[in-house]
Amino acid sequence: MGTVIRTPHPREKRIIFKNIDRPGYTPGIDSYFADGGYEELRKAFTMKPQDIVAEVKASGLRGRGGAGFPCGAKWGFIRPGETKPVYLICNADESEPGTFKDRYIIHQDPHQLLEGMIISCYAVNARLAYIYIRGEFPLGAKILERALAEARAHGFLGKNVLGTGFDLEIYIFRGAGAYICGEETGLIESLEGKRPYPRIKPPYFPAALGLYMAPTIVNNVETLCNVKHIIRMGGAEYARIGRPNNTGTRVLCVSGDVQKPGYYELEVGAITLGELIHDVCSGLKPGRKLKAVIPGGSSAKVLRAGERYKLKTKQPDGSMAEREIGIEEVPMDFDSLAAAGSMAGSGGVIVMDDSRDMVWALNNINEFYAHESCGQCTPCREGSLWMKKLTARMLDGGAVPADPDTLKSVADNIAGRTICAFGEACAWPTQSFVAKFRDEFAGYAARNVPAGGHGNGNAESQP
Amino acid sequence: MDIPAELEAVIDEVIKHYPVSKRSASLPLLHLLQEHFGYITDQAIEWIAQKLEIEPVNVLELVTFYPMIRREPAGKHHIRVCRTLSCAMAGSYRLLETFCKHANIDLHARDHGGHLLKSPDGHYSIEFVECLASCGTGPVCMINDDFYEAVSDEEVPQLLQKYQ
Ligand SMILES: Cc1cc2nc3c(=O)[nH]c(=O)nc-3n(C[C@H](O)[C@H](O)[C@H](O)COP(=O)(O)O)c2cc1C
Ligand code: SF4
Ligand code: FES
To answer: A42-55 in b/e burial notation, b at 16+ Cβ within 10 A?
Structure first.
């Protein structure tokens, strides 16, 4: 109980999390000023909006919310001379299981987010912006309200920001416990006062037809914080951190069976999954072996210990070389994790050792998706529930030999057949768990467990 | 239904945050009324609809969608335990049971109607919720608006003591 505070690991490169857990640092604006706060905003106002967009493009910054879409390219979709109003929304819904980074920025360093947001609004000419914060962060919402009031009092918000003639209002909007509000078009519907039913793309790309059918930029909290540092360093300098096409730092959130779970800000791709687990997180629990890792939030496909992946790397002479690597050698960046058949996603790394039952783990994930499907698309609404019922029944002692195939077939019939990416998000865990741990799933049918559990399949089978 | 003047002033201020469409204020207003009354009644739904010049069903469909919006009172103190994978690996199912035991809540009274589990005296209510974005310090829970990390079973009685 209480608050867990940690000092940064030596391998970390803290830019975004520089002030997190810093002794004496408070969310108030004075702490932020003492750290050079809002200097980048002043600098940004000396630049033309399109030059800021160009710097962000040059930085190579990719979205930190899950999809990894290039931020500058997204901003570039806003046409110069756009006649409709442009809106910017900060996605602070942080609800992908395994992800816990935006929470700390919001609670401990809210002004960094606001500065990044104000610069971003100026860059895309948004005069009205919202922070969509999940309902379960009531304290975070209060801290942000206070920070907004402080920023307003200092002339960083409101009419004629810092005498530049630029007007900007930012308001907080609280969600109410629905994961689908993290999906950007679901979020927009929610903000319009409707059920958060995602919109189909095309045509409803937010940058074209977003909030109130006007061009809207939706960015994650961590992405927007990065903008401030891009202004400080310049896009080219920022791009030297990390790897080509995988620039900057990322806050990796490690949970599960490691000695030291927590958040670690690391240069993208600078360490491998094995180094993350064994060095940064001090290894597995005593006597345990690695079994599986979900590398980018619960939606990412699971990686199995012992798997081999083919990774293409650029050689110094520019040619491409292919090498075969194991799970612990996978560099923690967007492209490498994609090459390993999974994704960097939201940065949430869930580690499982050999004490874990994969059917139990998948059932937990399935229960999440069954609960969170918005219900618009039949394959997702029904399929997510069927997958959960199947894994729950397996745990309860009612497994039959066809279960692995049935699970796969249900999942295969969701992915690619839905309005939003939740369809893939809920199908990928089942597809990957069943494919990679097929023996374990098949073994359930042969188990001699008493039939007739109580139908929720969870509590008793694992600590 | 009695809306105090101060609350209505807050509500009017909040509506101004949505200059393009008042309808956007429906979820914020549901939050405000739930904070004040503890839950959302039919009258509250109609009041919001009238205030925002929308149909009551536009408000009702939000009430029935969002897990945090309630149609019945919670206990005096409301406990939320995270159910999702990382916390489950750290023992959240057992933590839920421990809370129930010490708060005098019958966990097996769970039904499919989405009613909250409550102690007979209405002092505590409890629910399992999905990932609270603190997976590295599981198991985590919230009691009212307060957040607790790495909660052990042994700490539960002392924790409940704080909420009398
Ligand atoms: C089901 C689902 C849930 C999502 N949840 C979140 C979330 O909680 N936070 C977030 O920032 N992005 C989330 N996203 C991604 C957003 O749709 C969007 O891509 C992101 O906010 C864009 O910001 P970025 O480009 O800065 O990453 C989710 C996507 C899907 C499909
Ligand atoms: S895929 Fe699922 S969550 Fe997404 S719109 Fe369809 S039903 Fe809703
Ligand atoms: S799984 Fe409990 S906080 Fe994420």
So the answer is: eebbebebeebbbb
